[in-house]
Design brief:
By secondary structure, this protein is α+β, with helices and mostly antiparallel strands. Helices cover about 30% and strands about 25% of the residues. It is globular and about 40 Å long.
């Protein structure tokens, strides 16, 4: 393209993109790796069953799932928005590989998730987490999430947060 430098044509990395079922193995590796790091147990038959089929678990229900990838195509982060009802979605599987933390990428994931949730028409976003994930909880609270008591919580989680999006 005349008048554009080569630097302007390069994609910026890492980049966020919509996931599909071809990413399930990489997403599972990321999620299970972070869980192991914090001594939390994966639950492939229940809590983590959604990452076996990203397309039907998220997109077919009216939600979304994104991955953060490096220039080499490796998945270094992810998040999903899982519809609970027409007004509420759950932020799920927001994880970032250890080597990429502390660089502002968690903020990028969360800001994108909040933006996408609003665009999808949700008015409230909820999430469940484990108290050992202190960095994530600090991030959520800094964006205005407050604790609440859900009707049900996954077995590895001991805290739940919510945020009104309007």
């Amino acid at each position: 393209m005349p008048g554009k430098s080569n630097d302007m044509l390069k994609e910026s990395w890492p980049r966020l993109r919509a996931a599909d079922n071809n990413d399930c193995e990489d997403i599972t590796r990321l999620v299970y790796g972070v869980l192991k790091e914090y001594n939390l147990n994966p639950d492939p038959s229940s809590t983590d069953a959604d990452i076996k089929d990203i397309e039907s678990s998220y997109f077919d229900r009216g939600g979304t799932f994104l991955v953060l990838e490096n220039e080499d195509g490796s998945v270094i982060g992810a998040y999903g928005l899982y519809p609970i009802d027409k007004k509420t979605c759950e932020l799920r599987k927001m994880y970032l590989h250890r080597a990429h933390r502390g660089k502002g990428l968690g903020k990028i994931l969360l800001e994108d998730a909040l933006s996408k949730a609003r665009k999808l028409g949700f008015e409230r976003i909820v999430l469940e987490t484990a108290s050992v994930l202190k960095e994530a909880i600090t991030l959520y609270v800094s964006y205005g999430f407050s604790e609440y008591d859900p009707k049900h919580m996954s077995s590895r989680c001991d805290q739940a947060y919510q945020l009104k999006l309007n």
